[in-house]
């Protein structure tokens, strides 16, 4: 890609989420081991940043190494460490802390000169709660007694579920909810998207220009935005392309890539920005409540595959002859334009997400289409953002926010239809 630097050269440390980014359960995510090996070779340092507090860094690093991603314990940052630091900043060394969790928390507390205990009658001065598959009713009861007595309560994270190879299982957020329900109290939360987790990752990695890499909008990306860090969303985990398109501002990534190979791509081929609605061969318009996605030419793959089209956001490609048009399921009247080819037939195979191409990055054409759609929809949503805020419509949950931010701006069905017609779909295997 010539002299244009890749992400590996623009950022000193990649703060990598694990589940859905580097591995899914016992398996590495496709291309992850090789892409991370090459990132190290290019001079980028790696930090493995996980909300999962169950395992200490040594075991996380061993698991990573086992699946082909070499990692040292010092490169692993867990929400248990972030929680332990929060407590250590408030408590004298040697203080006893009740652990509603497992080994990961015990190791993190000892590292901060705090003493883990397992009973409410053992003299704890605080309670820390983090996921462990061994947590059962007796320990939840000890935690409830201690929290009800008024002790400080820190949760490593509040992710409601943990992915397992059999599906979604109760995560720490679900277990925290048990003590919350029983006591009526709220914990302080250390993990993503809260600031302590990012701070822990910066402190341990020494990053001066970090790139947060994650698969979740409401933890990884929201945490990066809250900290003012740039972020790369990869589509190998829980986030569907439609989720990115409909995301409110606080959940929007700086870059979108298919997988960790994106680290070796120029930022101009990955950047997503409100208003950048012409990207590569694609042009997106929000009009009359629907999304219209057009493609400049059935043979434009070579242009779109260069990966530098982001800077050509206003070149008026839409006025080229031979424009193909995607129509959403909610018809917006595009059919009245004669002579336009439906995109489904016009898109070449190279635009398939994840497919290799002989010219540019794998799947670059489809990625460009997604970026164009985001550029158009984000700008349209932002234009009404003030009104949504003024009516007190701000919602915390992702789904609610989607409705609050995009309600009346763009019809979801038309976005889905456009993405589908342009084959901007995620890889077929859903990890969880
Ligand atoms: Mg993840």
Automatic annotation (TrEMBL):
Keywords: Hydrolase. PANTHER family: 4-NITROPHENYLPHOSPHATASE-RELATED, D-GLYCEROL 3-PHOSPHATE PHOSPHATASE. SUPFAM superfamilies: HAD-like. It holds the Pfam family Hydrolase_like. One of its GO terms (cellular component) is cytoplasm. NCBIfam families: HAD-SF-IIA. One of its GO terms (molecular function) is phosphatase activity. Residues 308-334 have a biased composition (Low complexity). Residues 302-345 are annotated as: Disordered. This is HAD-IIA family hydrolase.
């Amino acid at each position: 890609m010539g002299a244009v630097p890749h992400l590996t050269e623009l950022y000193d440390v990649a703060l990598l989420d694990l589940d859905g980014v580097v591995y899914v359960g016992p398996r590495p995510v496709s291309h992850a081991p090789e892409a991370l090996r090459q990132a190290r070779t290019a001079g980028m340092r790696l930090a493995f940043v996980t909300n999962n507090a169950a395992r200490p860094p040594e075991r996380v690093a061993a698991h990573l190494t086992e699946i082909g991603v070499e990692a040292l314990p010092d490169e692993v940052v867990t929400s248990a460490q972030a929680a332990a630091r929060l407590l250590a900043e408030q408590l004298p060394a040697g203080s006893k802390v009740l652990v509603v969790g497992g080994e990961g928390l015990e190791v993190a507390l000892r590292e901060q000169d705090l003493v883990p205990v397992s009973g409410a009658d053992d003299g704890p001065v605080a309670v820390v709660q983090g996921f462990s598959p061994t947590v059962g009713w007796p320990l939840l009861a000890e935690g409830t007694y201690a929290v009800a007595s008024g002790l400080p309560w820190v949760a490593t994270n509040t992710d409601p579920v943990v992915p397992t190879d059999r599906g979604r299982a109760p995560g720490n957020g679900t277990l925290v909810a048990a003590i919350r329900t029983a006591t009526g109290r709220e914990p302080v939360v250390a993990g993503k998207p809260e600031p302590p987790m990012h701070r822990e990752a910066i402190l341990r990695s020494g990053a001066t220009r970090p790139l947060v890499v994650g698969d979740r909008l409401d933890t990884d990306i929201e945490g990066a935005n809250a900290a003012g860090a740039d972020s790369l969303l990869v589509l190998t985990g829980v986030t569907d392309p439609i989720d990115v398109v409909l995301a409110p501002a606080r959940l929007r990534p700086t870059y979108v890539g298919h997988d960790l190979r994106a680290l070796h791509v120029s930022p101009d081929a990955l950047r997503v920005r409100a208003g950048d609605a012409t990207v590569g061969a694609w042009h997106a318009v929000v009009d009359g409540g629907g999304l219209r996605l057009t493609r400049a030419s059935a043979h434009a793959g070579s242009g779109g595959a260069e990966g530098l089209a982001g800077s050509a956001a206003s070149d008026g490609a839409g006025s080229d002859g031979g424009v193909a048009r995607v129509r959403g399921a909610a018809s917006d009247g595009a059919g009245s334009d004669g002579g336009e080819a439906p995109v489904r037939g016009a898109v070449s195979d190279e635009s398939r997400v994840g497919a290799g191409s002989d010219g540019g990055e794998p799947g670059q054409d489809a990625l460009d289409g997604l970026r164009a759609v985001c550029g158009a929809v984000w700008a349209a949503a932002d234009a009404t953002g003030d009104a949504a805020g003024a009516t007190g419509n701000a919602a915390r949950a992702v789904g609610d926010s989607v409705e609050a931010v995009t309600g009346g701006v763009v019809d979801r069905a038309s976005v889905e239809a456009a993405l589908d017609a342009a084959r901007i779909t995620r890889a077929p295997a859903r990890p969880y």
